[in-house]
Amino acid sequence: MNWLFFSIATALLWGVAELFYKKGAQPDEKYSHLKICVWVGVVMGAHAIFTLLTQDIKYNPVNLLRYLPVSLFYIVSMAFSYFGMRFLEESISDPIENTAGVICVLLFAIFMGDKFSALTWIAVAVIGVGVVGVSYVENRGETVRKKKLGKTLAIVSFCMPFVYALLDAFGTFLDDAFFLVDDVANTPLVDVTEETIEAVANTSYELTFALFALILFIFMKAKKVKFGPVKQNKDKVLAAVFETAGQFTYVYALGGVDAVAAPILSSVCIVSLLLSRIFLKEKLSWKTYAFITVVIIGILLLAISEEL
Asked: 307 with 103: CB under 8 angstroms?
C-alpha cells in the first residue's frame, strides 16, 4: 500500500507548493514570477544532478534536445501561472489550471482518434459548466479586481490560468502520445529502457528548467534586479522544494491502483483551496465557490473515468 501513501503525499506536497507559490508571487514585485522560475530551476537542477549521481539511468545528453519541446511547454506554462498568481486568488487559479486534463482529452480525441467513455465526456461537460460559471461571475461588472488592477490587467491575469492549462495540456499530449510510450523502441528518446524512460524524461525536464533559470538569472542581472538573500526569498524557495518533492513522490504513486490513485492525485486543487482559505484568508463570493466546486467535481470524475 506504499503507493497510497505516496499518492496522498503528492497531493499534499503540491498543494503546499501552490500555497508558497502564491505567497512568493508578490503583485508589487515586478519580477517575482521570474524569480520563482529561477528558484524552481535551481532546485530541479539539483535534483537532476542527484539523480544522475545516484541512479544508473545511463543518461544520454542528446535527450535534453529530444525532450525539449515537451520541457518548454511545461516550463513556459509554469511561468505564465506564476505571473497570474501575482494578481489572482489561488482559490480561482488552481482549479482552472487543473482543467488541463480536459484539453488533453480533446487533443487525443482530435489528433489521435481516441475514444472515451460516456463518463469522461460527462466530466468534460461538468468542468466546462464550472469554468464558464467562474468566468462569468468573476468578470461581469466592476469587480474588486478590476477596480484594484484596472480592466486590462484584471483580464490578463484572469487569462493566465487558462494559458497554463492550454500549454500544460499540449505538453502532456506530446509526452503521452510520442515520448513516454509503452514500446520504448518508438520513443524519440535514446538509450532508454522501460525501467529508465520516465527518469530520463524527468531528468531532461529538470536540466532544461535549470538552464532556463540560468538564462532568466542573467537577464534579470542585466536589468539590475536585486534577488536578495535566501531568507528574503524563503516562500519562493519553499515552493520550489515542495514542487520537486511532489514530483519525486508522484513517480512512486503511479505504481498503485490507478482508479484510486488518480482521484487522489487530482485533488491537489482541493488541498490548495483549503490552504488558501486558511492561511491566505482568501474570500470569494458563494457563487464563485459553487462553480469552483463544480470544476473540482468534474476533475475528480475525469480522473476516475480515465483509469476505469
From this structure: no
